[in-house]
Amino acid sequence: MNNPIFLDYAASTPTDPLVAEVMQQHLCLGGNFANPASRGHVYGWQADEAVETARAELAATLNADPREIVWTSGATESDNLAVKGLISRGLRLGRKHIVTSAIEHKAVLDTCAWMETQGFSVTYLKPNKQGVITPEDVASVIRGDTLVVSLMQVNNELGSITDLGRIAAICRERGVLSHTDAAQSFGKLPLDVQALGVDMLSLSGHKIYGPKGIGALFVRRQEGLVLDPQIHGGGHEMGMRSGTLPTHQIVGLTAAAKLMQQQMCDETQRITMLRDRFVSHLQQIPDVRVNTPLTQSIPHIVNVAFAGVDGETLLLALNHVAISTGSACNSASVEPSHVLTGIGMPRELADASLRFSFGRYTQVTDVDSAGSHIADVLGRLRQ
Ligand SMILES: *Cc1c(COP(=O)(O)O)cnc(C)c1O
């Protein structure tokens, strides 16, 4: 049997061979293997140089200062650090209110839930039907004691884009910090932290054809913004995140980010074409509803409801495509997607929804055969 067609790029991506080759040079004896914090020998200096070069290059892709990049193990850790790292600041300033949304990734939602156990209060904004949080929504819930607004730029189940620039500007005016989980937008949308104006931004390597286990948090250099470390031990990363820096992961993430940036224009066009072609296949099938707001989303993700069938049954029957019902992180539970119910979809329709996501290796033939496979399977299931 042929392997199923991989249409789950929003869950993870294969490492690009060019990235793997760069990583390979930073692992073994003869390569750049040493501890970047070793100050006493040339091996350490070379590893440190590789890390700092990568830091400057990653910062450049965001138009950030290299000193604003903190290496982490991924977007989950970055999200945790961005929010929990503000506890001291919140206590010092008497600001114990957090604003987020009901459709965030669990890395933010679970972190906020934990903050509630620590005496912070959280407002969970409801997005509109498109899965978008408006600046007006944010402005209306900011209070005198609001500490931070944390909203994702691109939703991982819908692909919907939130206008963070205007939101960050409102936050700044009101003296509130802003954080965004950019795991799904980094490398896919032009991202300039100066223009965007956010104070913190999380990103991840394995969503952009880099390795798993590496990410970064952009932390804007500004008076009084110091995050409480969540991992102590040695004071690496300006005291914000200890632990020996994984040189191979860091150069891998950076090489992946540079490739994304080089290819962004062409890939956006190519993937939009694939997505539109895929959607037009699905529109031939009765009772198919596209949940993704196609005019306000990245082309890499399309979420679709197939009325009258159970999503789990459909997922199993669609054995020629590798997809997910929503977020891979939730696939252990049978609860309907919090994102789809969060945009007001009835439970049955949310249950009958699947996420298709496209990427670097997706070809026209893939979306064509996926489309006809879906039509066949649905025809069978609905009989
Ligand atoms: C994948 C993803 C994460 C988790 O990133 P890791 O690097 O796997 O920890 C967080 N947020 C969003 C929006 C994601 O898509």
Count of domain modules: 2
* Percent of sequence in beta strands: 5-15%
Number of helices: 13
Shape: globular
> What is the name of the CATH topology of the largest domain?
Aspartate Aminotransferase, domain 2
Largest sheet: 7 strands, mixed
Bound molecules: pyridoxal-5'-phosphate
N-to-C span? 26 Å
List unreliable stretches of 5+ residues. none
Q: How would you write the strand order of the largest sheet?
A: 2-8-7-6-5-3-4
Q: Averaged pLDDT, please?
A: 95
Rg of Cα set: 21 Å
The tally of beta strands, per DSSP, is 12
CATH architecture descriptor name of the largest domain:
3-Layer(aba) Sandwich
CATH homologous superfamily placement of the largest domain: Type I PLP-dependent aspartate aminotransferase-like (Major domain)
The CATH class of the largest domain turns out to be Alpha Beta
Which H/E pattern describes the elements?
Answer: EHHEHHEHEHEHEHEEHEEHEHHEH
Question: What structural class do helix, strand and pairing data support?
Answer: alpha/beta
